[in-house]
Every structure is written in structure tokens, then in C-alpha cells.
């Protein structure tokens, strides 16, 4: 497949330098570009019609039938593809066992107008979570639970961090994920659309399964160490907690998200929605 692409052998090549710089958040924000590494994740990005600027690959990718098909897809879509020798590719890679494919894509531009709400829709708002593995897992969980979207507040780890993308298993391309620097904008959206705000906090007096919900809801989970910020606590319709029966003082925030979202989905399926 090398004949379909150009070759890069120098670290000083513009494409190599740009791709490597995108492992840094400031560079991603400046260029409005991010990197996707690994066969499955690149396939997911293509299926989601992410605009791919260019791709770098090594012989390891071309050695597999799936990899050859991916290269053909790039060719069909007119994506610039560059072959990189294995040693140089490993220096570029952000993973321990690179699969030989590294794509550079343009930021997805998403806002609240992208959300499609139904009578029983569920949203997840993530407030200040710092660990990329937690954020990626929470996005993946929200997608699996059928959430209509994920909302990220200012101070939350960068959505396009490569570790977030890997932990999400590509679901950031499948579910609307919307960031904003204005918590007031989120609140205004909730009020306009009559979305019940349920905030999970260790100090909540009510247990999460004691909540009575009707219509769309948003579950709010906060920073790993400090929990949700006062803004969301002050504007919550309910502040709830997950009971801890053992000696553990807290739950991992991504685990908590899984409990809340999937139990909410279960209760919605078992209990008919009341209509006034």
C-alpha cells in the first residue's frame, strides 16, 4: 500500500512535528485539531464523518487486511496519507503498543442545539472531572445507557486528550459532547426545556433511588476530590447520594455515573411515564 502514500523519514517533517505537538492541549486548541490513534478509533472517527486532515501509518498497519482496508478508505476520501518507518512511528505514538495508524482530525463543533430531547431523555453533566480515564469512561457509560448527550463544564479535562478518546472507546464520536465556559448557559437550557437537575453529592440527604422523576433529567457529577461546585448544588432540584455499605469513604466518579445512569434507565423502563 506504500505506493498510495508519500514517505516520511525525518523528525523535522512538518506533519510529524504537527502531529506530535497535538499531544499538548495548548497546541490542540490553537490548531483546532486532535489526534486519533489505533485502528478501531480511527474507524469510528471516519464513520462519524470526522474531517481527517491527514494520517500517518507504518508497516504494522499495512500488514493486516483491516489496515489495508483503512488505507483504501483514506484513498477514497481523498485523505493525505504518509508512510512512516516503524522506529519513527513509535517515537510519535502515545501508546505502549502502537497499531501503526495515527490520524489528525478537526475539532467537532457541537453546541446545545445538537441535543435531541424526548419526554424521558437523560443527560450527564460532568463538572470539573480531572482524570482523562474517568472522563472517557463516563462518556462511554452515558452512550451505553442511552443518554441524549454529555455536558462538560469549564475546568473539566480536555475532551480531545488522547487518553480520553481511548477510554471512551470512540464513543465521543457517537454521542453529542458539549463544552461551555458558562454554567449559566447550561442552567438556562435546563430551565427552558424543563429538565430536572439531579446532583450527586456525598452529603446529599436523599438516596438516589428515592427521587421521583418525570420528564427529561440531567445527572450532575463533580470533581473527584471536591464533588460538584456550589453553582450546581444551589440550583439542584434534588441533591442525592449513593449509599456506601462498606468501609470505603467514596466511589470512583465514573463508577458512580454508571450506577446512576443505568439505574435511572431501569426505573424508567419499569415505571410508565406519567402524563398530566
Automatic annotation (TrEMBL):
One of its GO terms (biological process) is methylation. GO terms for molecular function: methyltransferase activity. CDD domains: SpoU-like_rRNA-MTase. Keywords: Methyltransferase, Transferase. This is RNA methyltransferase. InterPro entries: Alpha/beta_knot_MTases, MRM3-like_sub_bind, Ribosomal_eL30-like_sf, rRNA_Methyltransferase, SpoU_MeTrfase, SpoU_subst-bd, tRNA_m1G_MTases_N. The keyword Methyltransferase applies. Residues 35-111 form the RNA 2-O ribose methyltransferase substrate binding domain.
Amino acid at each position: 500500500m506504500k505506493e498510495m502514500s508519500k514517505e516520511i523519514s525525518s523528525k523535522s517533517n512538518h506533519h510529524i512535528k504537527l502531529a506530535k505537538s497535538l499531544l499538548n492541549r495548548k497546541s490542540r486548541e490553537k490548531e483546532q485539531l486532535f489526534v486519533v490513534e489505533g485502528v478501531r478509533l480511527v474507524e469510528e472517527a471516519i464513520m462519524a464523518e470526522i474531517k481527517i486532515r491527514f494520517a500517518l501509518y507504518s508497516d504494522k498497519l499495512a500488514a493486516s487486511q483491516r489496515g489495508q482496508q483503512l488505507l483504501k478508505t483514506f484513498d477514497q476520501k481523498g485523505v493525505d496519507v504518509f508512510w512512516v518507518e516503524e522506529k519513527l512511528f513509535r517515537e510519535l505514538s502515545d501508546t505502549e503498543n502502537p497499531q501503526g495508524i495515527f490520524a489528525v482530525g478537526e475539532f467537532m463543533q457541537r453546541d446545545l442545539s445538537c441535543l435531541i430531547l424526548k419526554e424521558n431523555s437523560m443527560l450527564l453533566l460532568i463538572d470539573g472531572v480531572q482524570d482523562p480515564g474517568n472522563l472517557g469512561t463516563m462518556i462511554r457509560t452515558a452512550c451505553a445507557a442511552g443518554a441524549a448527550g454529555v455536558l462538560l463544564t469549564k475546568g473539566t479535562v480536555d475532551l480531545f486528550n488522547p487518553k480520553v478518546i481511548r477510554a471512551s472507546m470512540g464513543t465521543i464520536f457517537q454521542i453529542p459532547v458539549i463544552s461551555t465556559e458558562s454554567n449559566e448557559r447550561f442552567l438556562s437550557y435546563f430551565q427552558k426545556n424543563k429538565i430536572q437537575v439531579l446532583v450527586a453529592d456525598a452529603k446529599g440527604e436523599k438516596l438516589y433511588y428515592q427521587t421521583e422523576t418525570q420528564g427529561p433529567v440531567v445527572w450532575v457529577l463533580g470533581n473527584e476530590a471536591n464533588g460538584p461546585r456550589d453553582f450546581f448544588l444551589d440550583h439542584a432540584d434534588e441533591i442525592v447520594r449513593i449509599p456506601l455499605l462498606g468501609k470505603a469513604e467514596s466511589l470512583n466518579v465514573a463508577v458512580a455515573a454508571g450506577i446512576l445512569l443505568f439505574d435511572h434507565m431501569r426505573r424508567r423502563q419499569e415505571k410508565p411515564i406519567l402524563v398530566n
